[in-house]
Design a protein that fits this description.
mainly alpha, about 65% helix, disordered N terminus, disordered C terminus, EC 2.4.1.-, Alpha-1,6-mannosyltransferase, glycosyltransferase, transferase
């Protein structure tokens, strides 16, 4: 683990770099404002939206290609600003931006996005419907929106067709929070969306608090972790704008890890004091609460147990003791959450609800489609469903084995536990039955706090930037009007090129390669 003093060696930015930072901030802020404007016509607006009949604002809803072009232009501006910002957060650079400079940049980019309509996904409407079911005293783990609320209910009409008959796949803590929101907003869609976004922003605050602290523990400059993690376009687009509850789940998980490690003894083979034990219990409680939002957060308990065992002496008996402690804490907390919310344990049976959707983005599902297609080609019959089921079982078994291997290597000290957590979450989600672009954040955020390797950061940066710009903003299919996407992207590329030309004097220094440390 890197000494804290070693992370403080970088000097602040010089005057020229501060001017470049101001350009980057304004560039990204303009992009965020364009996203807000574009959301009025290209966003995942409610079915019965008040916008079409609103003077001036209603024009955007009647120009889908133009508003999508505006949105994609904003996406290009935000992603390019993030890439340029990365030069001032690169590990090993002699001058890095300060934490306050990065925080100010984040605030400038996020503030406009808080007021945008949802984009990139319609999941928030499922949250509203499922929360209303719970508020009505019905069981969201037994009934889908169409059955519980009716197909003509204003909240049901906004839920995508594939989810209208399915029960909620989310944990009881999240639905309890959603139930409280529904009691305030009722059938009002836009106020409900806004309050759910505030819930996600609470998770983002947790992420911003935990990332730099964990980074210092695991030898990464805090601003480097925040840049790759909290400032990541995937966070801005899919947590803030897309209103995904991953923000709350990951935030609780990361805060739980940091709290649990706060008073951990720095020397091995030392018994835990009551103070240290209390922080571990509190941290495990927060991680379990994250799992009560979305279950992948529970994997952090395993790697926390590994870190505790190593601090206790690194013996196998220490691993068993830490496992028993965390199992007891998480069992009590989860039971109390299920019973205290009144939602019970039905969520355990609905964890596989998402698997009913057959998406080509999931590698095992794609392999199942491929196997079924080969069967048709060779006239062996259509066994697509059987092949998908087989591939999912095999890949999930592989993810379990890989997770156990990562846990063991972290226990033996061959890898950082936080890196094992990121890799393990990545394996579980990539090899799972469903894969969505924002799932990348489960792996990227923990890894941002523990990996300094240049190859990893280039890979993570490239993947984040590419995924950030390939998902259409509408959060739905383009039945009968697929031509709008190439039109919008072409217009956005032209507009982005014009922006680069107009601001070429300010932008060119950012495009030039940053000199290596020590270069003249």
């Amino acid at each position: 683990m890197t000494n804290r003093d070693e992370l403080a060696e970088a000097e602040p930015l010089d005057a020229a770099e501060r001017r470049q930072l101001d350009v980057i901030r304004r560039w990204g802020t303009v992009g965020a404002l364009l996203l807000v404007v574009g959301s009025l016509g290209a966003g995942a607006a409610p079915v019965f939206s008040p916008l079409p009949g609103t003077p001036v604002l209603g024009l955007f809803a009647r120009m889908p290609s133009a508003t999508m072009g505006v949105t994609w232009t904003g996406m290009f501006l935000v992603v390019s600003a993030w890439l340029w910002l990365g030069r001032f957060a690169r590990p090993g650079r002699p001058r890095l931006m300060t934490r306050s400079q990065l925080d100010r940049t984040l605030l400038m980019w996020i503030t406009p996005l808080v007021f945008s309509l949802p984009m990139f996904s319609r999941d928030v409407y499922s949250y509203l419907a499922q929360s209303q079911i719970a508020a009505n005293g019905q069981d969201p783990y037994e009934l889908g929106p169409a059955t519980a609320l009716g197909v003509d209910h204003p909240l049901t009409t906004n839920v995508p067709n594939i989810w209208r008959e399915t029960p909620a796949p989310y944990g009881p803590l999240f639905l309890a929070a959603g139930r409280a929101i529904s009691m305030v907003t009722g059938d009002s869609v836009l106020p409900g969306v806004f309050l759910h976004r505030l819930l996600v922003l609470l998770g983002l605050v947790m992420i911003v608090w935990a990332l730099p602290r964990l980074a210092v523990r695991f030898g990464v400059p805090p601003v480097s972790a925040l840049w790759l993690g909290a400032a990541n376009p995937l966070v801005l687009f899919h947590l803030v704008v897309g209103v995904h509850n991953e923000g709350l789940a990951i935030g609780l998980m990361l805060v739980g890890l940091e709290v649990a490690l706060r008073r951990m003894p720095k020397t091995t083979d030392v018994p835990l004091s009551l103070d240290e034990l209390g922080f571990i219990v509190l941290g495990a409680t927060l991680i379990t609460m994250g799992a009560a939002v979305k279950i992948p957060a529970a994997l952090a308990l395993g790697f926390l147990g590994v870190m505790i065992a190593r601090r206790l002496g690194g013996r196998f008996v220490d691993l068993l003791r830490s496992a028993l402690l965390l199992a007891a804490v998480s069992g009590v907390v989860m039971t109390a959450t299920c019973l205290g919310t009144g939602l019970g344990f039905g969520w355990i049976e609905t964890l596989n609800v998402a698997g009913t959707v057959k998406s080509w983005m999931s590698p095992p599902t794609a392999m199942g489609f491929l196997g079924g297609g080969l069967g048709l080609v060779f006239k062996l019959g259509n066994h697509t469903d059987a092949m998908i089921t087989l591939m999912r079982v095999l890949t999930q078994a592989v993810s379990v084995v890989l997770g156990a291997w990562l846990l063991w290597n972290a226990f033996r000290g061959r890898i950082k536990a936080v890196n094992g957590l990121g890799a393990g979450l990545g394996a579980v989600l990539v090899l799972g039955p469903v894969l969505q672009p924002w799932y990348v954040l489960w792996a990227a955020l923990p890894l941002a706090t523990g990996v300094l390797a240049k190859r990893f950061r280039i890979f993570a940066t490239t993947v984040s930037a590419v995924i950030a710009v390939i998902l259409p903003p509408t959060g739905s299919a383009f039945d009968g009007r697929a031509y709008t996407v190439p039109q919008a992207v072409t217009g956005a590329l032209v507009a982005f090129a014009v922006c680069l030309f107009v601001a070429r004097k300010q932008v060119m220094p950012l495009i030039r390669r940053d000199p290596l440390p020590g270069a003249a």
